[in-house]
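Input (structure):
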């Protein structure tokens, strides 16, 4: 029987995984564009439609962009240059340590892959003490 965690990811998984990380606060949790933070720093947020992320055929703004922080530009490039993933960036995010994904394309990655992206986003923004505590708890020490 396949592992249910390896099913295609969905928007509810973003919320569930972000909230599962320690010390998370949510700004505008009832809005369509909540912001997940650790220590006052955003690590995942849902964007309003913006002119920098548009459908190349219609010019319509994407209504469903989610932003995930990453640790480094190398991490960002690894995600956006891998043609097997739905992650992308826009010129507006040049130099910004984050990647974008459309909610409508989350199903192109597994829930397991999404969990890693959310956890890495949290790790990139959490304090050193919180990172170390969480990592220790995961290694069983």
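Output (sequence):
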């Amino acid at each position: 029987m396949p592992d249910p965690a390896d099913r295609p990811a969905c928007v509810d998984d973003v919320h569930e995984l972000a909230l599962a990380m320690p010390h998370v606060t949510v700004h505008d949790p009832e809005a369509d564009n909540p912001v997940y933070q650790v220590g006052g720093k955003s690590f995942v947020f849902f964007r309003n439609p913006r002119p920098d992320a548009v459908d190349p055929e219609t010019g319509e703004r994407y209504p469903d962009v989610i932003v995930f922080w990453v640790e480094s530009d190398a991490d960002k490039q690894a995600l956006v240059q891998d043609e097997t993933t739905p992650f992308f960036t826009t010129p507006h995010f040049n130099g910004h340590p984050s990647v974008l994904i459309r909610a409508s394309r989350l199903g192109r990655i597994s829930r397991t892959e999404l969990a890693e992206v959310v956890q890495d986003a949290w790790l990139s923004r959490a304090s050193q003490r919180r990172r170390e505590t969480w990592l220790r708890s995961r290694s069983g020490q």
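Notes: DSSP finds four helices and five strands in the chain. The beta strands are 24-27, 35-38, 41-46, 65-69, 98-102.
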